[in-house]
Amino acid sequence: MSGAVLLFGRLKDAFGAPSIPMPEGVGTAAELRSMLAHLNPDLADMLRTKTVRIAVNQELVADEAATSISPSDEIALLPPLSGG
Amino acid sequence: MIRVQTEAFDPHAETAAFSKGRGDAGALASFIGSVRDSAHGGAVEALELEAYPGFTEKQIAAVEADARGRFDVIDTLVIHRYGRMAPGEAIVLVAALSKHRREALQAVDYLMDRLKTEAPFWKKEVRPEGAEWIEPRADDREAHARWINKE
Q: Which of A5, A54, A74, A82 to probe the B interface (max B CBs under 10 A)?
């Protein structure tokens, strides 16, 4: 799977980049979350917390296990919002 | 109408333009949020807001649509800045026009309470000793909740 995962806020600082490559073998939003936590053990606690939300094609995901993702989707990891 | 931008804006000129020629409106209410020069007992040199272009506009538009459905307003305006801002600069302007005062005042109050918790921005305070990411305050969440409890 190609594509990228967009990062914002403290996640962008933690990874030191505005996006990271989409890991191989990820079919759902839930798999993306667990795969990223597995690949980045230092950040696993932050990545596993449900206050970090996943957006697919600019829609917030409610049920991550039921949300499939494909290489053409725009994927973003959103840490807790600071608000306006 | 909503606008999300990095450029500085003059909230008074924007409010005047928004209400110009609206003879049908008996009431204009507005709120201007600005960068404070101190927070958590220390000096703030700047505020940096990050947005998710496209998504941020969409989420704010949904909040605006809810306000329009909830209150009998003629028009609403939300202008929100992102990027780096200095103390004293306006971050957000919310305004509402209505026939009578109550609806405009309530629409502005509601819009700000929702934006404080739901607007997709990530905020960093730049202080002399370093920068820190800021997350919603408990009282902002409570301010949002008081509207949900009314539903």
A: A82
pLDDT in tens, A44-70: 998 998 889 999 999 999 999 999 999
CB contact under 8 Å between B54 and A10, yes or no, is no
Q: What is the DSSP letter of B83?
A: E
Contact B50 A8 (CB under 8 A): yes
Looking at 3.60.15.10, 3.90.1170.40, 1.10.540.10, 1.20.1540.10, the CATH number of the domain B2-140 comes to: 3.90.1170.40
Q: Is A70:B49 a contact under the CB 8 Å cutoff?
A: no
Structure confidence at residue B98 (pLDDT): 98
pTM, entire model: 0.90
